[in-house]
Amino acid sequence: MTTQQATEKLAPDLAERMNAWWRAANFLSVGQIYLLDNPLLREKLTLAHVKPRLLGHWGTTPGLNFIYVHLNRLIRQTDASVLFIAGPGHGAPGVVASTYLEGTYSELYPDVSQDEEGLAKLFRQFSFPGGIPSHAAPETPGSIHEGGELGYSLSHAYGAVLDNPELIVACVVGDGEAETGPLATSWHGNKFLNPANDGAVLPILHLNGYKIANPTVLARIPHEELKALFEGYGYAPIFVEGEEPEPMHQAMAAALDEAYAAIRANQKAAREGMEERPRWPMIILRSPKGWTGPKTVDGKKAEGFWRSHQVPFSDMSKPEHLTLLEDWLKSYRPEELFDEAGRLRADLLALSPEGDRRMSANPHANGGVLRRPLRLPDFADYAVAVPQPGGVELESTFVMGTFLRDVMKENDASRNFRVFGPDETASNRLQALFEVTDRAWDAERFSYDDHLARDGRVMEMLSEHMCQGWLEGYLLTGRHGLFSCYEAFIHIVDSMFNQHAKWLKSSREVEWRRPISSLNYLLTSHVWRQDHNGFSHQDPGFIDHVVNKKADIVRVYLPPDANTLLCVTDHCLRSWNRVNVIVAGKQPAPQWLDIDAAIRHCAQGIGIWEWASTDGDGEPDVVLACAGDVPTLETLAAADLLRDFFPELKVRVINVVDLMTLQPHSEHPHGLSDTDFDALFTRDKPVIFAYHGYPWLIHRLAYRRTNHDNMHVRGYVEEGSTTTPFDMVVRNRLDRFHLVIDVLDRVPALASKVHARQALRDKLNEHSRYIRAHGVDLPEVREWKWSGSK
Amino acid sequence: MTTQQATEKLAPDLAERMNAWWRAANFLSVGQIYLLDNPLLREKLTLAHVKPRLLGHWGTTPGLNFIYVHLNRLIRQTDASVLFIAGPGHGAPGVVASTYLEGTYSELYPDVSQDEEGLAKLFRQFSFPGGIPSHAAPETPGSIHEGGELGYSLSHAYGAVLDNPELIVACVVGDGEAETGPLATSWHGNKFLNPANDGAVLPILHLNGYKIANPTVLARIPHEELKALFEGYGYAPIFVEGEEPEPMHQAMAAALDEAYAAIRANQKAAREGMEERPRWPMIILRSPKGWTGPKTVDGKKAEGFWRSHQVPFSDMSKPEHLTLLEDWLKSYRPEELFDEAGRLRADLLALSPEGDRRMSANPHANGGVLRRPLRLPDFADYAVAVPQPGGVELESTFVMGTFLRDVMKENDASRNFRVFGPDETASNRLQALFEVTDRAWDAERFSYDDHLARDGRVMEMLSEHMCQGWLEGYLLTGRHGLFSCYEAFIHIVDSMFNQHAKWLKSSREVEWRRPISSLNYLLTSHVWRQDHNGFSHQDPGFIDHVVNKKADIVRVYLPPDANTLLCVTDHCLRSWNRVNVIVAGKQPAPQWLDIDAAIRHCAQGIGIWEWASTDGDGEPDVVLACAGDVPTLETLAAADLLRDFFPELKVRVINVVDLMTLQPHSEHPHGLSDTDFDALFTRDKPVIFAYHGYPWLIHRLAYRRTNHDNMHVRGYVEEGSTTTPFDMVVRNRLDRFHLVIDVLDRVPALASKVHARQALRDKLNEHSRYIRAHGVDLPEVREWKWSGSK
């Protein structure tokens, strides 16, 4: 497509009106960045009309406005349901201007009305205290994507269209964002899309050539390389390049018509049975940065250069800058665009689609409106029989998988549940899912492939970024999901978690946003069982990262066995507007609670395990607390040892499922009251706390508690290697022997038990010698059973 | 290149010997995974010879061995200096086998000798307690890259060749790894390489088709798409595809010769003045997963399928598996490969390069050997004159930039210092660097470009992953650098930091590894000054993430002004084997310490600011502590207010530069002794601590200190928006007024000061009204000056 060929696409009148709409959007964008008052320039512009602090980004804005008006034309012509994602950072002046022009903004924020007064408010609120941010955000109508941290627009887009066969997501990818890793791999999303049952993504790569102070890579490679790159990614790129508005309007209209036709043709073919992966269209729009802005500022190149990135000129003490601003604003001829009252001219208003067809009012962008709760089978039906604690060994996540399988089956008709993970669903023992669905795959398939299918509902790509981005896009458009990941590598998406948690917090402050399903993580293959992998795979710090976010948003669960895992999973799948982190092992491990006990325990989130305690109804001599499956095992083994060594010692065993119970109630809604906490942990007895992760997190949560000074926490202290499971806990002093030594060190009555201490030290030495000789753990450790189950 | 065309590349004898070497490497790889003893199969294989726990990854290994022997042939033929990076996870059986065959392994680990006994040790130690991990690691000779978390091989490779004009890094990229975001963008590293002064990267994309349980994307797209993708990335791909060893040897040899010739031709042209970016060669090697392994296991496809990913069969209780293992091992005909003593046949040994030319002995892979300290100008020469505290305002990072400029200049001849950052060097006020160098750029350049040059030493790409990967590769090969980043977005590389910190910890335990330069972060554009950006750009949690790693490795500095920043920067650039995090603002801010005071303060890392305190030599009534530039400003303003309100009150002001001083000395080498801590913070007086980041971190560091229960910490609590600088601190209650209220709440003598409290509340209300009306902070806040500087 060249601009030449396309000159007849739009009738002159329509082209003219679209250009006027674009001028209006650009005018409103500049106004938001610069003006405090005098929104229609009906008075001579003075410094008093200009904001005292000029903040915002002009560079990407005119391009976004250009794309917006063209998408509106396409929607009006085809009645397509289109969602708009503005990938470029700081595109808010444009997105807000366009959503205002089509009326949605004023419907949601009546104060920002369709008149001169509303215009003044629109301008004033932008990047102003108490106002709105300079990038698309939860406050922005039609947005499911914050243009703050870059890299996730396209994975959000691909997540949004899953199971939305009629939806098209027009995803503008900035050429800055395109340099990020997450974005660079997300082009491959087209190999995981089912054209028969999913919608389509139309990527619009916007080459405006510059980042903050640099050119962009993709704008500075030859045309043939650029074309090859995107053909290699599996797309059919359509180029729209230039800077003269008239031919650019014609070219863009032609490009969109061509792309739309290709999308519908691909979908039709697939829906009629065609099996091959289609070549999806994309648009490469090359237009000047800061298009229609000042050509030069202070004699230096501005339009089409990085100097247009933010505010092209901001030192308003120079009188010539005030003139430049007024000339720039007037170049859009606002008097032709807005009527006397300050309302957009009716024939321009008519360019917008109507009602829900406006991209800013598309219900998919406020996913909570469309969200229906999952149909959940009774999780108790999947319970493991546990006749006595520790009497059964099995893989907890396998049991969870059987529940997830039936969640998948129960919701098959509504197609609103998917499971995500980087090639690890089976490795994480969730393979029961493959009894009812497959892995989504639309690249080449062979007869011997294992559970690969176009309409698979398990999304696996070796990119945690992609899994997270897909899931966020899926949730934000009103569906449900779960992301299972190796614990250490979930840090790859630390910053994506941050942004999603911030989105959720801000959303709660936006009245018209409806709650969306929680983002659920299952972290498995955790720090304590890295038999194949070693030190590089050992990091339990995601929990520490998560708890820095607002208490309203985050939950952390450490179910010690399969039945508690079932209970927690059910709870998380029912919740909304949260991030739930579940940590659970995938290796065979002893089971402690039957389903009734599990339900009771999870309802409290924390509790005394009386069957493992020897303190009766009185005060214990020592509290053994634990959180996490491996620490629970070691704690119970320590309790067993203590019973053998010191039958008189009164030991209380506490297990924590819901980590947030440890925080003060004033800090977290799940936090125990101080009275309840003291009743559990005592006010003055030693507490030996075996924790799954970095030990100081327990101190950070509990430092205000009465008995905090007596809490001694064991956890992962960055000691690890490729070794046996028991050696891992020994290296970090979380093992049963060290825990008992800790008790000896802290219970005054035991201070003199020199023999016991020596016996424990001997045992640790025996362990070291044994694993070096045999490569496996001591038989007595491997075969240990809780005394109650013997 | 097709296998057909290349049949004559290798003389038959050479091809035969290379294949024998490959068989030997494969044999040793299988041996490492399976065998405990009987390494040369000189006895009938029994279960007693097999490891009790079978751990390891076979799938990628034969491909790595194949590439290794071919690179050796190329090195012998050309005498090139080649470094080997094994991107695929868990490639250790192969890399270790190859480095053993060329003798390096036994030189570094004499116990693992070149004889039958050494072979038994080699096998036994693999994935065995006290042994070595299953992926390339610091223990692995010749490695600068841990094949644990995937995605960083190619950015490491590009970092390693910078300023090493003769070096070639042969970088094997697994097709699993190729799906990650960081890897997908790192192909663009070729646009930042200077062919005249940097070395070359030869990427070898190894398509073995499968991940853990899935095919890979790049192995399942048509040949034409694959070719287009890499041509689009700017490479000239050479394909080597097949599974029959003989033609594959011929094809691989031809491909390597072709690639090598292209590299040298590109370099020659550039070094003779050619300006255009060359098209660099790469190799796409398509070979079966688990090549030469069992075709089927238990009737199921194994070779060429994902079932070969780890241990192809591990249930050794089945007698047929023992037979299968023996047959497999014997298929390599070890009796033809090793002599009576168990040493590789001499004519095969002769295939390895000699001395430092062995990839496993290349000194670049043990960068500390090559590392020379930086020439550093005296940082005091860049000091800001501070006649009285608070008397001068300027941008601290700008001052740091002038120092970095001269560090760059002083080391220009040795070409061993670079600065990295995602398009933010100037935005972060380090623009003085551009007085002496440019941004590296080998894509298209235009006359109006700003400081872009092929030989620029500032590396900017909008990918934090790429910046981090480049820098790691640069440091690991013995050079120096600094990464400047927006504070919030450094979380993008949380997991890369993890892996690097783990690498450093493990390296310290490897006797032959020499120390490398520290990885230095400058985090700026920090949480408190996001005027353009708002909530999504506010996250100070990287510090929390960092302090979870081993105390030996991590340091965190919060210099409050320019002179302390200079002092800290100098210190960090001199250090080794650490990760240093420096947090400092880029906005104009008051300066507190002259250079002599700054040097004294930084030497202690923490100290009383007597000029700001009113406690004389006695005990204070209250301690105001602060860490970070904005908290320091607010603390001093609070001290000023307290002096006005309560002239009798004895206030002590403590500033913390080195955060690790707060930890107990037993936990961190920089930690203060309890005596020193108590002398500063008192044993019982209220402490109001204004901290840059999440407040609970201070509690986590200081919870064991005597006076901890009286410490009240203010910091960032996830409250933010697009607003004024002062409103940001108000929203998080870190502002001067809230700090004074905190003092009122905690100093018993002030409990009755109702008027003061009301005056402060009034002030906060006035602030709110004022910013909403004017969009800027109260004049008295904007114009506040420390009383000593008035």
From TrEMBL, chains A, B:
Ranges in coiled-coil conformation: none
The protein's Enzyme Commission number: 4.1.2.-
Protein name per the record: Probable phosphoketolase
The family this protein is said to belong to: Belongs to the XFP family.
Gene3D superfamilies: 3.40.50.920, 3.40.50.970
Domain (Xylulose 5-phosphate/Fructose 6-phosphate phosphoketolase N-terminal) ranges: 12-369
Organism field: Ancylobacter koreensis
Matching InterPro entries: Phosphoketolase (IPR023962), THDP-binding (IPR029061), Transketo_C/PFOR_II (IPR009014), Xul5P/Fru6P_PKetolase (IPR005593), Xul5P/Fru6P_PKetolase_C (IPR018969), Xul5P/Fru6P_PKetolase_CS (IPR019790), Xul5P/Fru6P_PKetolase_N (IPR018970), Xul5P/Fru6P_PKetolase_ThDP_BS (IPR019789)
Domain Xylulose 5-phosphate/Fructose 6-phosphate phosphoketolase C-terminal: 586-786
Pfam family, one: XFP_C
Top EC group: lyase
Keywords, alphabetical: Lyase, Thiamine pyrophosphate
Cofactors required: thiamine diphosphate
